[in-house]
Amino acid sequence: MRAHSTLTRRLLASALPVALLIGQDAAPGRADPLIGRTIGAYGLPGAIDTPTAEMLPDSTLGATVAYSNMARRNSIVFQALPRLTVVLRYSRVESTEERRGYIWDRSFDLRYQFLDEDPNSWRPAVAIGLQDFLGTGIFSAEYLVATKTINPRLRISAGLGWGRLAQQGSIGNPFGHRPDPDDEEGGKPNVDQWFRGDVAPFVSASWQATDNIYLTAEYSGDRYACETGDTEDCPRTPWLSDEDELKNRLNLGLTYQIGQNYQLTGYVLGGKQLGVQFTVAMDPRQSPFPSGTEKAPAPVRPRVARNADPEGWSGAWSADPTAHPAIQKALGDALADEGQVLESMALDANRAEVRIRNNRYIQQAEAIGRTARLMTRALPPSVETLVITSSQDGMPTSSVTLRRSDVERLENTEASQISEAAVLSSADPRPGNLVYTPGLFPRFSWSLRPYVSTSLFDPDEPFRYEVGAQLSGEYELMPGLILSGSVRQRAFGNKDQDAPGSLTVGEYKALDTDYNSNGVPRVRSDSRMYSGDKGPTVPRLTLAWYAKPTEDIYSRVTVGLLERAFGGVSGEVLWWPSNSRLALGAEINRVKKRDFRDVFGFRDYEVTTGHVSAYYDFQNGISTQLDIGKYLAGDKGATLTVTREFANGWRVGAWVTKTDMSTEDFGEGSFDKGVTLSIPLAWGTGQPSLRRVGGNIRSLSRDGGTRVSVRGRLYDTIRDSQSGQINQGWGRFWR
Amino acid sequence: MNRKITRGAIGAALLAMLAACGNTGSEGSISGMFATALKQSAARMRGEEAKVAPAPDPSAMAAEALRVNPGPLILVGLERMGTTQVLAMTGQNAGQRTYMTKNEQALIMRDGMLVGTRGLGNDLSVAEMSGSSALIRSGRSGQARRVMRYWTGDGLERPLSLDCTIGPGAKAGTIVESCQNGPLNIQNNYIVQGGRVTVSRQWIGPNLGYVTIQELRP
């Protein structure tokens, strides 16, 4: 492990006994899906080229790099539900259509285990799968597969495969002819091909030889027709290549498990071709520091007996005008030590409300729990009702109301007890007696730090990066009115300025147009024209005003340079009662395309875009968002996003956008789609922080179906302090 | 080419020099953590890891703490980490006492029985063991169920229940609580004086293992 830095080690190490703890929860007799032991060449649990019915532990996120003469496949796998595995793959595929001789092809897989294995009978686990079911589909195949544990070391799988899995050994075509693959823009589900054409059986066996060595053998129907130049069975001629033909249908592999998180596999395909692959897998539920290493909270201070402080208990202190400021100062200082800002406070003889901005804890419930304890230490004994209101960018979101005697009575008990005693409600936007903490506003903050900007998956250069320094500043004139921006200076990198298509930068500039040859506005396809600036750039400079006009309605107006490519005005309203699982919003933007180089200059393209959105939170950590409206290129359509979010802050989601832009106008990929990943840094390091790592992986960056990327959209701004996230996070109240 | 490399190197050096600064606090900054990680690896490569400061003598530490701090104190040894520290009481709520180290890691105790830990990374949220506690403190033998709750990596609090048998230990005056859940077997040892545990070795959890706790001043 010496080779790793402490950080990687922390990120990858995992705490084994969590399994023991999680096992406690499982209802007796509840069937669990069959969990795979080795990862196949497509990045899912499997043999080598053939699939098995196995799953990964729920919510596992993994990545596999598989490399052979015949294929280079990089896969990201996510166990989206206990029985549903999804894969995004990025593979190098030979193509005579491209002058460079290959393309980097993106593909998606799904596998669903619909029948659990019964360890006490003959019944195997059974799964159905779609491989490379969108787009051009060089790996396209469908299968039905059963896996049975013969003994603790040996598992056997057998199934039927269509498409690529039936290039040889066909036993017929029960559902009719398989049409040729889409040779146009790709990107759409190739439904007409699923389970069509020849079907062939496949078999595999996996044997655990030692604690960390697995031997695999399979009898596969994939004979790499295109890769070995077999014109008859290769569905498209541009994919033809001339590798040596496989000698037989038998593939053999050896997998070495390194620790809990890594696997290294070597294999021989058909007695002829060699391959190697490496897998890393992480379980979001297994953090190296599950409780975090943040310091202990200050304990509750119980109130003294009535006769020991009659004045405090009577509430007479509240008549003293110096009492409130002194208490607010003391509490504000104590909260500051906890990474919380005491924005304002209302205080009377038996009720206190504090409005806090949480700058430290991913789980808002932890911030609320620490604030409640500090309130028991700062407030006179007559105050019995404690109200803790979360504030996000000056907007009060939810209020948690607690009885002080409950906080005293339930300190350090099972978290469900305090969650039952607490009442969560939408915060009153303008309570009468609220006093702002003096000296907070105007608030100025700044930072100067290095940045790394990367762009992946460019066919010509899969990894582009830029490193430099970024100066950011934020000036909050009054709560909710925020002027912010950043300046970047590139130091080095290979992210250079580049024009779309085969044009040179000079040629593209000379064309001086914002439309492509089909008349589609270039809103994203020329985004690399913004790269590679040697001088300072201003990625963002905005004035934003956040407000909460009524109890359940939030609003935002942002003006300025909204993002690298667009500037203008963006307005948004959101209806979201704190206890509601449903939220509804509307957004309208008037934006103009920014100049490639001139910081404050604009190009000619100007557009009004807008959306209405509905958000719904299913309580098991799954949320959806539907946006309907007009996109940047003037196309109209809808975006559907599905996200799985854990109480620890991990988010994994996927979205698709379909607009009225024709697939020809959209170009390769047909419509916009992708996945998002966001991991709280605190999960890996144990140190409390709101920082996250992650980003969007979109299948292709095209002009259709894209939105202006404005900062601080309301839903994302306030979601952490609404009921869904707070209820998931109650467990951290006493942390 | 050569010039380009030099420029790149200078750029990197400048970036490292500016590292991260500002008034937003480097709390949890990515670059800050990389810097720490780098420093640690560098230190390890230089073999600094081997130079461990000599462990302070626990009795000297206890004597010093007793002299400086007038309140209740306990001496705590985390076996798996090999550390011994004096913790001072920072709060008391209905018989539940919170003890903290100087760097604000805490142990929560009730009558000398461990209720929870805070700030150790694999903390025990709460141990529900009133049955065990009553038997142990009254010196009786018997059976009791204990529920230990932990924060798990997914951000939730999850229970681990243990079935325990309480009885006299091998040495006179000691009490043993043996607990079991499937393959997991743990043993807590106690010495009771005046109805509360004064010296003990108790299990915190799967990752932290055992802690020894000695009452220095009640």
From TrEMBL, chain A:
Residues 171-190 are annotated as: Disordered. Pfam families: YjbH. It comes from the Bacteria. This is Exopolysaccharide biosynthesis protein YbjH. The lineage of its organism: Bacteria, Pseudomonadati, Pseudomonadota, Alphaproteobacteria, Rhodobacterales.
UniProtKB/TrEMBL annotation, chain B:
InterPro entries: GfcB, YmcC_sf. SUPFAM superfamilies: YmcC-like. Residues 1-22 form the signal peptide. Keywords: Lipoprotein, Signal. It comes from the Bacteria. The keyword Transport does not apply. The keyword Lipoprotein applies. This is Group 4 capsule polysaccharide lipoprotein gfcB, YjbF.
